[in-house]
């Protein structure tokens, strides 16, 4: 490809908008689309062009990034009225960045393939700040030549790119395995931290010791750091990881794999939502452990 | 203290012997003691002097390190026949490095105090290799002046020393909180890794992606690295962490703290022992997850 690819972003929530901002700052002038008018207004003010529908967007770009919340939304933007599949040119490659079940992304890939459209399974991780800086991570599965074709743009978006396999679905699979683990490690961190508090230990000392000991984890350092500051302002709200751990345990059920810790973590995340903390950062799971 | 303190080590299993070797290599000529004749023979061959009993050892040293396996053994070496408490000089300070329940170490401290002997609550972490190199970590609780008095020797033993508080029991408490978390993170790592294997993902790719993503933990990197090499030779055998997670959940029960993930992890560790893997490294918990 001699000219840089034209990129469209469908779904400009926290992650999608951050990705679009990053592309804009690097001169890529992304075309964007969202069902929420206020999100489109914000993007317009930043200097982005708004497409009138997913189909209209797909007709004008080389690469469509789908960054919506769940499988139902992915399906809607791809196959709904004026969806990507209804476009006339069918030359754009679709990259699904949402965290959804492997069967869902496989199903989308098959339907698009029948229309001559390629799909890359490309879940992302790292949060809006890293997405905006181009330092998020990305797990890529699909046709190797197609992925290679977009290497320059992927390099702009994610400084950590993992080529998982050529099998669409493996991106979703490894993302769910990772998020299952992040979810369990988060609930575990809260359970242990709250136990230490209840034993009368100094919270800062607990944090300091665990960060340097065998109980350390990425999620412990990150989320318990917020707990120490009593800062539950949402970076990632509780329902997001709850959804992902639920998807992971259902994926495991589908192959007869046991997930006793995943189930216990899911129950605690659901309890966190039920106790009214859905609008807070997922570090708020510790509130369910406190007396 | 103008002359370096004389140190004795009671319990020269994997950790105790590694500590004694480290002290020997730094010219401290530790006096040692174990109930197992073969352990004492090994120490003698290394050039260490063997005491005839815990009491005899305590009479000749400034600091007694207790590095036995559990609370019953701690009690036996302190208060059994020819135990430390039966010594004549009673000038040595006792440092309990074993991972035991807070009430157990508090009980020992009270009984020793009545005899004029000080106890420092000092659980250790890091495994034999780090103990031998003097790079293990140590969580210290007890009289601050007494701890400071032995600063030079503690610096030789552990390059990471955490002064938790002046309250004996807090060393045990924070150690159990850490090991609870390490135990949950280990079982979680095995659960997620085995799920990834079952989904047909390349194990090396799983390892690489998780180590760089939000599911990362110290124990994942360490133990799943062994799983990748199919190396279950024991560094820490399954029953050790099983014991610690059991102690931690019982400590939590004592204050009415919920530990749903701790209980789920404990059940899986116990299952690992029940399935015949007690002699293997605790990474073997993954064997219970494989088809």
Largest interface: A-B, 67 and 68 residues
In total, the number of strands of chain A is: 9
CATH architecture of the largest domain in chain A: 3-Layer(aba) Sandwich
Determine the strand fraction of chain A and express it as a percent band: 5-15%
Q: Structural class of the helix and strand makeup of chain A?
A: alpha/beta
- Give me the CATH superfamily of the largest domain in chain A: NAD(P)-binding Rossmann-like Domain
Low-confidence runs of at least 5 consecutive residues of chain A? none
Q: Care to give the gist of this entry?
A:
With about 290 residues, the first copy, chain A, is α/β, with parallel strands linked by helices. The first copy, chain A, contains 13 helices and 9 strands.
3D structure, described in words:
Two copies of one chain form a homodimer. Chain A has 291 residues and is α/β, with parallel strands linked by helices. The first copy, chain A, has two domains: 7-167, 3-Layer(aba) Sandwich (Rossmann fold), CATH 3.40.50; 173-288, N-(1-d-carboxylethyl)-l-norvaline Dehydrogenase, domain 2, CATH 1.10.1040.10. Chain A is 52% helix and 11% strand. Chain A is built from 13 helices and nine strands. Chain A has helices at residues 14-25, 37-45, 54-60, 71-79, 102-113, 128-133, 144-149, 151-157, 170-198, 203-211, 218-228, 238-254, 260-277, and strands at residues 7-10, 31-33, 49-50, 63-66, 93-96, 119-121, 124-125, 137-141, 160-165. In chain A, the strands form two sheets. The first copy, chain A, has a six-stranded parallel beta sheet with strand order 3-2-1-4-5-6, sandwiched between helices. In chain A, strands 7-8-9 form a three-stranded mixed beta sheet. In chain A, helix 10 (203-211) packs antiparallel against helix 11 and helix 12 runs antiparallel to helix 13. The longest helix of chain A is centred in the middle third of the chain and has 29 residues, at 170-198. Chain A is globular and about 65 Å long. At the A-B interface, strand 9, helix 9, helix 10, helix 11 and helix 12 of A face strand 9, helix 9, helix 10, helix 11 and helix 12 of B.
